[in-house]
Amino acid sequence: MPLEHFATPGFGPLTGIGDEAAPDTDGQLAALRRLGWNSVELRNVDGTALADLSPTAFEALARRLADDGFTVVAVASRIGNWSRPVTGDIGPDLAELDVLAERCAALGCRLVRIMSYPNDGLPEGEWADRALARTAVLADRAARAGLVLVHENCAGWAGDRADRALRLLRAVDSPALRLLFDTGNGVPHGYDAPAMLRDLAPYVEHVHIKDAVRLPDGSTAYTLPGEGAAGVAECLRILAAHGYRGALSLEPHLAVRPHEGLTRAGADAADLFVRAGQALDALLKDLADGPE
């Protein structure tokens, strides 16, 4: 049952990163429709990042989304992510942002997910200086394009510590930089997600939903929302208490995990995605019903 059937505390639309359900546009939109959702977060289409689609392919995608009545709530870019260390050239990130500025304008979307650059052997202070400087450059360019960069609690200098995320916001000091909070990233990255969120909630502009458990060998297994150890329900309560009004975007990692090289959804991906969306709906219904 879709979110709009529940009296939830003011959250925005339910949505999801489409390529977690299927590689192609048809499959992505079909999975979202099965959940009763009419918005999408874009990352890859047919295995190609949104910024790398040819003009013809992008035009076809934008036309299809409009014809089918889907809105785009955010774009998950590769800027500053796990594949782009802080010692690399910032050129690809600037080029990607420029392309996304045009494409977001065409899609009516303003949020672009970024990260803050993994280290590559630099001393802590130099890593911090470079990450802060790069993010400031990106935010300035985003502001001029009418975009808002949302930094995720994932890979990079400010990814796994609330104090660093807050320092990043203070140093850049731009309305074009806000935070994206992923409920499931604390498990693989070794921190308590609800504890971090309590410090960051006032600055959160976008939310990813996933859940996970740590296995005895130290690896991570992803679960349906509410069935793992990430504290998803508590994160939702914290967001509600702070008056969060943005989207909740499903990124379950049950079939697609780009950071592990699993980049293309298999035959069962759509069913797993739908099950994860239904589990999120159930958590939201519990939240709306109040404490037991």
Automatic annotation (TrEMBL):
Q: Which InterPro entries match?
A: IolE/XylAMocC-like (IPR050312), Xyl_isomerase-like_sf (IPR036237), Xyl_isomerase-like_TIM-brl (IPR013022)
Q: Where is the Xylose isomerase-like TIM barrel domain?
A: 29-267
Query: Record's superkingdom?
Result: Bacteria
Protein name as annotated: Xylose isomerase-like TIM barrel domain-containing protein
